[in-house]
Please model this.
Amino acid sequence: MYSQISKNSPVVQKYGGTSVGTTERIRDVAKRVAAQHAQGWTKLAVVVSAMSGETNRLVALINAVNPKSPPKAYDMAVASGEQVSVALMAAALAAEGVEAEPILSHQLGIFTDDFHSKARIKSIDTQKIEACWQRGVIPVVAGFQGVTESLEITTLGRGGSDTSAVALAIAVDAAFCEINTDVDGVFTCDPRIVPASRLIEDMDFEVALEMASLGSKVLHPRCVELGAKFQMPIVVRNTFTPNDHRRTRVMNLNDKTNLEAAVVSGVTLDRDVAKVTLLGLPFDTKLVSSIFSSIAEAGVNVDIIVHNLPEPGGKTMHLGYTTTKGEVDASLAAVRKVWSKGSSDYTVETDCAKVSVVGVGMRSHPGVAATTFHALSSAAIDIRMISTSEIKISCVVDAAKADSACQVLHRAFIA
Amino acid sequence: MYSQISKNSPVVQKYGGTSVGTTERIRDVAKRVAAQHAQGWTKLAVVVSAMSGETNRLVALINAVNPKSPPKAYDMAVASGEQVSVALMAAALAAEGVEAEPILSHQLGIFTDDFHSKARIKSIDTQKIEACWQRGVIPVVAGFQGVTESLEITTLGRGGSDTSAVALAIAVDAAFCEINTDVDGVFTCDPRIVPASRLIEDMDFEVALEMASLGSKVLHPRCVELGAKFQMPIVVRNTFTPNDHRRTRVMNLNDKTNLEAAVVSGVTLDRDVAKVTLLGLPFDTKLVSSIFSSIAEAGVNVDIIVHNLPEPGGKTMHLGYTTTKGEVDASLAAVRKVWSKGSSDYTVETDCAKVSVVGVGMRSHPGVAATTFHALSSAAIDIRMISTSEIKISCVVDAAKADSACQVLHRAFIA
Model:
């Protein structure tokens, strides 16, 4: 990406927990940043996560004093991990002869709402960043943390540091946001499951968002969504390889590129799936609506819903939905609030996984569903539930057969 | 102290690194604070240090990335230790059913100058503390850290957390400042050296300041100085014993109490002493003055100075001074700037220690010096240097004989 933009363009570089996991790695990252700065990239901003393992250590500490900590205290403890990384990275850059400014969320002004531990960014004040650049200084900003208007520390929850980086890139009008991590980018499938997996060099926001939502761990859906909303290109690359050409670029691809796009970009796997089936429900659309309202009010995310009509002449039906394994009980409690027929009127299957094929090319290729079902059935893999959209097909399958489902689908569509 | 004041009086309680060294200890401290709150002490404020070992861990991390870290980054890394303690203590109080507000220096407004790593407190905004008390909430404040007017994090250096606590006590007009630590209080000598050492129950600020400056490790001179300046009583007690009566109280003692005061309150030992003697210096007061100006400009603290007049008829003299072992080289470099006669014109003795007897009662007892010298000479301990003030006598002795010097002086004056 650097070869395509002017050296005066702002660029935000984010380094994740493994990239700053040891003091040696922090020094290595500082060397790369300092070298780019020396080459004339005068508007670099660095965003860092906590050192890998540090957030878990802090969570264990606070849980040991109080398993139900007040959110303000919890976020204050956890946010200290990024504070240390910011300080160490600024010090490491100084050791490379580059002046760097360590900046915490309250110092910059990364304002969030006050939903502690899952706060959402409202605005970012870029004044301090611009001032750094004018003085030839590299700003080093804490990821994952924010501050409320009353100066309380908040944290952003899962995918937080990536979201901080993309939000900062948008705020400073960066050319792109670089996410430095411990893999080369987003692959067509997890290479540990499908050895033939290939790096996806260019992805549309749409595909990236589906893949992230459907189980690809590299990018969190939240930061992709933010990037898509503000058209901020995201580049995923490996901190530990010097190769800048091997990477995944997520951006709005122009039509010409889309024409060349593969039908299926990738195969994803999500193992954290449970299937709940409510049995013998009266056929009543109002009841179904109130069931899912109640589940939503409980803050439980439901993914696939299968709503069968009753058999001809019948008056009851089965209603199935999937959620994460950890949210099954909360979802059932929510169901109970609006439908309390009995206690044995449901089944829960936790031996499930969801495999999905994703690609913008699917829009114009109606045969994808047929190929998917054929590939799975040839391998004797039963499909328990199906969900489709314009650019993806998801199938819930037996957890024990999840890996081979990925393999046969990858072979059928990609390689 | 609690029995002597109204329950409406503000009290600041500070807990040091060992007092919050594990999550179990944090829970124990929270139990004590919660119990006092339940008894009607509605204006408690808690100040905490970093968990013991944490500051060293952070210093090691930042030194590993850059042994000469920029002070801003250094302070940001180190201050995270107190941030974690504050959050854990607030969470532990919540577990005891007491609402607590975790407060960092920038949130409260503990404003300091911008001398990073050794900042001095300029002012404390108490608004947030008062608001907590009005809502029945216990404020938990980070010790050791401050913030500049431009929102940079600073740290206060040695004795920092105690200083934070005393400064906060002064700001909120507390009845007293309680320093909770891992010993019962200040003793007449270090009990590991002199088993007969007794706890000093009441001390004048003056004596406490001398003892702290002369090697007693329990209280740092800086917080005693602040307490003395604003007449804020300081109570030192042991976190790990429930006994509130066994403690050292440092305050302005009234005359009547002073009349009963022992001649000598305590014996202190400072092992970090080096003696430098500049040889064959011309007898020139201007030169002597410029030597010590130069040393002061280099930021080196000189303690005892011995300035002999030349022998009758002679024109040169020897000039001796003591400093810490680590500052010998810096002091000699400073001397070189104004007197560069040769390179072998000095001696350095690092096998030294300083024993001192301290007490306000000494003012009216001219025999103390004689007793001191007699006690030391009876034990065949040579005195290399002597320094006296109205309330103390310090002797530099052979390091190997330091412990026995303490023992004979304690026996001669105390027990």
